[in-house]
Automatic annotation (TrEMBL):
<protein>
    <submittedName>
        <fullName>Tripartite-type tricarboxylate transporter receptor subunit TctC</fullName>
    </submittedName>
</protein>
<dbReference type="Pfam" id="PF03401">
    <property type="entry name" value="TctC"/>
</dbReference>
<comment type="similarity">
    <text>Belongs to the UPF0065 (bug) family.</text>
</comment>
<keyword id="KW-0675">Receptor</keyword>
<dbReference type="InterPro" id="IPR005064">
    <property type="entry name" value="BUG"/>
</dbReference>
<keyword id="KW-0732">Signal</keyword>
<feature type="signal peptide">
    <location>
        <begin position="1"/>
        <end position="23"/>
    </location>
</feature>
<dbReference type="InterPro" id="IPR042100">
    <property type="entry name" value="Bug_dom1"/>
</dbReference>
Amino acid sequence: MIKNLKFLAAACFAALAASQAAAADNYPSKPITIILPYATGGSADMLARFAAQAVQSELGQPVIVEAKPGAGGVLGTEHVARAEPDGYTLALTASGTMAVNPYVYKLRYKPLEDFKQITVLVDLPFVVVTNNEFPAKTLQEFIDYGRKNPNKITFGNAGLGTQQHLTQLMFARAAGIQINIVPYKGSSPAMNDLLGGHIDAVLDNTGVQTPFIKAGKVRPLFVTNPERVAALPDVPTGPQAGMPGFSAVAWFGLAAPKGTPDAIVEKIQQAIAREFAKPDMQQRLLDLAMIPRASSPADTTARVKTDLDAFGKIAKEVDLKPL
């Protein structure tokens, strides 16, 4: 009886494996949709279209980008978690939706359990900028000013509970200063107040800030990437500016619903890797202050776990309660 059960289990497993292999061989046989969990028009939208172009070029089927914004990326991401695991509905993911939102919202999805991570597409470092009238002109002067004037520096971000917010908290602890964090509903209102002199500084991603920096409208202090950013070659890293060991980098990626066959996940990842390795695509991304990655599914899963642990620690320290 036991032998029969073992034989039956083995036969079922073999049939499932054969079925998944056949599905992967025929994939894709119809258009693919990438769900953008944010509003159109920003850097995430542009990147989703680059990814769509890459997959379409390699796999030969149309790839559509569909925006489903809301709740900091939660609504669109949750939609993909509940989609059919057949490789035809993918999520543009981010360190925010995968590693920060679990501590900000009461989610109906689990980043590691409900998704097959496909790839990290790009890293997107942060940069700290001040208005041009702020007295500190370097990171060290900023820190010295903060130590002499506790809670006096008004430091804006794109929203309460965002990765920018948690990174500011990490920065303040590493620098040993107390700052007055001012959350906004997005980068635009924060920048309006910074340019108007109503706040002293902003921490934001390099993609948003690069045009302001190049136009001389704000003063950059440092980038949070371990290496300098190609689009901002004159802006030092934290260690170069006098803050050893500090780095904090956002990222965007792709994920599929759990249960998607591994062979399909690999097929999509390899398509992205080939296209993102091309010099023209690399230059387009670098010009937007994005750093191309195209990591493996295993490395992407490991990165989600590492970030979940890191942001979980800071969320616990500040007693952040999910909404």
